[in-house]
Design brief:
Layout lengths: L8 H8 L6 E5 L10 E4 L9 H9 L4 E7 L2 H4 L1 H10 L4 E3 L1 H8 L4 E4 L9 E5 L4
Parallel strand pairs: 1-5, 2-5, 3-4
Antiparallel strand pairs: 1-6, 3-6
Length: 129
């Protein structure tokens, strides 16, 4: 049994399969999930687990070379906006509609229990060398 890192077997396995350039959408409970990508749904109750908890857990295990979020997060969810700014100095912002469109190309979608709006980010995997 693993003693650290991501313990959820479905998520740990999906993370292990990611490669350079693959997209990972970390999303709130309300984000429409596109058909196609593998989905690991962690949502348990409203707010559990939080967007911040899941994002930080993934960032501890992934090499990320870029991130894209919805511009609407700036006005609608200051906490998520500040979190994203602190984790991604070069965060790309697009419209929420564009983010939904881009999410169709993701390899993995990780749904959180986050119940605040626009707590979504599309990560682009990098390489460790």
């Amino acid at each position: 049994m693993k003693k650290a890192g991501i313990l959820n077997r479905h998520l740990a396995g999906a993370v292990a399969e990611l490669g350079h350039g693959d997209g990972v959408l970390v999303c709130d409970a309300g984000m429409p999930i596109p058909a196609g990508p593998r989905v690991v749904d962690l949502a348990f109750r409203a707010g559990v687990p939080s967007f911040a908890e899941v994002l930080d857990g993934l960032l501890a295990e992934l090499v990320v070379e870029g991130a894209t979020a919805a511009d609407e997060v700036r006005g609608a969810n200051p906490e998520a906006s500040a979190l994203l700014d602190s984790r991604f100095p070069d965060l790309e912002l697009v419209s929420h509609e564009k983010l939904k469109e881009l999410s169709r190309g993701a390899r993995l979608v990780v749904r959180t229990g986050e119940a605040r709006p626009y707590a979504n980010v599309l990560l682009r995997c990098g390489v460790f060398f």
